[in-house]
Amino acid sequence: MNSPDSPPGFLGSFRALGDALIASVQDRIELVSLELQEEKIRLIQIIIWITALLFCCAMAFTFVSFTFVYMFWESARLTVLGGLAFFYTSAAVVIGIAFRRYLARQPRPFASTIDELKQDRACIPKEN
User: Fold this and answer.
1) What is the separation of C-alpha 119 from the centre of its chain, rounded to a whole number of angstroms?
2) Are 34 and 119 in contact (CB under 8 A)?
3) Whole-angstrom Cα distance, residue 75 to residue 99?
4) How far apart are CA 55 and CA 13, in angstroms?
5) How far apart are CA 69 and CA 81, in angstroms?
6) Which residues in the chain come in under a pLDDT of 50?
7) Residue 27 CB: number of other CB atoms within 10 A?
């Protein structure tokens, strides 16, 4: 009936549209999956770095504090303890602010997927 050169009918066009729609959805799902995997890896790396940093800092601060308190046990132990408390509190505030800035610089999760979906919506003609 239809030769290979003849244009497809309504059913053929409908199939092509359905196939294109399914392919587009599949591409978007694959993109979301890829970005989710990247976000998971980045989160695990951040947790590992933070854990290692906290452990090493805690050990260093503990032994440095013990050393200072031991050195000044007889003459100025309360002054040393107060100074160490002030130092650690100040350091915690500075590190907290720096970490907040670091998190603010991170890219939004799923930014590529959102951009692709916006481009898809822009291609769809609007009815007046």
Assistant:
1) 23
2) no
3) 38
4) 63
5) 7
6) 1
7) 13
Tokens of 14: 């409908």
- Counting the structural domains of the chain, the total is 1
pLDDT confidence of residue 41 = 93
Q: Are 72 and 79 in contact (CB under 8 A)?
A: yes
Question: What does the block give as tokens for 51?
Answer: 């854990």
Residue 127 lies inside a defined structural domain of this protein: no
Residue 4 falls within a domain, yes or no?
A: no
Residue that has been written with the tokens 């998971």 in this structure: 40
Residue 2 belongs to some domain of the structure: no
User: Residue 45 is part of which domain span?
Assistant: 10-121
Give a yes or no: residue 66 inside a domain.
yes
CA 109/CA 34 separation, integer angstroms: 11
Tokens 């799923």 belong to which residue? 110
